Amino acid sequence: MKSVKVLELSVFFLLLIFFLGTDLFALLLIPIYIYSLRSFLKEEGEKTKRRLLLEELSDFSNLLEQGFSPLYAYEKTGSFNYPSFMLHPDDELFRFEIFEKQFQLFEKSVILEEEIEGEILGIRLKMSIMKLMPLGLLLFIGRLLPMADSSNLNRIVTVLFLINHWIGERFLKSL
Amino acid sequence: MILVLIFLLIIKKAHIIDVLSSYVKAKRNYYRELIFYLSYSMDRDYQDLLVVRGLYLLYQLILSWLLIYAALDFLELELGVLYLFSIIGFFTAFIWMANRIEENKRNLIEDISKFVFHYELYLIQGENQLHALKKASQYLLVFSSAQTLEEFDDYFQELFTYTKWLVVKRITILIERGRHFSQADLSMDFAQISDELFRKNYQDKKLQAEKLENMMLIPMVGDLLAMIFYIVSPFISTLIVGG
User: Fold this and answer.
1) ipTM over 0.90
2) Does the N terminus or the C terminus of chain B have fewer Cβ atoms within 10 A?
3) Pairwise CA distance, residues A144 & A156, whole Å
4) How many domains are there within chain B?
5) pTM here?
6) Which residues does chain A have within 8 Å of residue B224's beta carbon, measured at their own beta carbons?
């Protein structure tokens, strides 16, 4: 999923650069590409952190079920970055039942996220194809239509594609 | 004629809004769910305030429209643009209202989930039922905190009349059972309610994903239009410039 998105972004901006050709306007696409890639990787990093945290909490929970004390179990799992929304094992009020409830809720929210990701994967793939297809066609058509060889026209069309790309990304983020 | 109407609207502003808001309040039962989801509150006074504000905004929009119409008519300018903007404005307002209702439904599911979670948590921590409910109710923004168990029961019954969600009914049953049973005996009820809220949340997200699939047609159509624009514009410019 991550690699598909990176590939899609890279191919999209590469096609736009090919489309613009030797126009200096193409240089503006590079910072936009870097920014889009960076924000996508940052988002994916957050999701990976949540999954890792879930694994660590799961190990912690297993140790507690085996009867170890909260502090010992926490140290045994490597004193990971304990989430602030849960009672710390150090806390006097820490109780296994409360931790279990909080852990179950966190687990459910991560599972829900993954299931929704799966659902929208199909939409993302369709969107990628529909985004790259017109751009690919444009490159082909641009060679056949000599009258279309105008840098202003190319720039306008590039901006339109970028606007549509941004609108699509905003819709996907709104989920 | 238009000027007479504008004059009447300005002179009788308070009376018109008063009559309209009395009418809406009298027909409350037809609009109660709509007003609830738009206001996200069960407080009748706040709902009435929102209705009056909405009617006042509508009054201002109608007055502005009539003034612009009169001005365009006086200057003998094209009215088509005004009609076009009116239609765009109407659909924008409609979409805004629909989005707000959907957003408030999602917020309500999340708030109820937080409420149930914290209610169980405080019971586990040893709080008595009323204290646990009072503390948990700070996460439920639709109603102000109740002082007695009966009030909580009444609030949830009223919430059920607005939402028609079975899970809300289960919560009223849970509160009733909480008077006679301990938290350990209610653990199955809590688990069932949490599961139901989770499923509701999942269904809501799934519906959003389906709506998103349709919304993705907008940028896709935009790309195709950009392509058509690219193909057609050299021919158009040739026609305009004349070879």
Assistant:
1) no
2) C
3) 19
4) 2
5) 0.72
6) 134
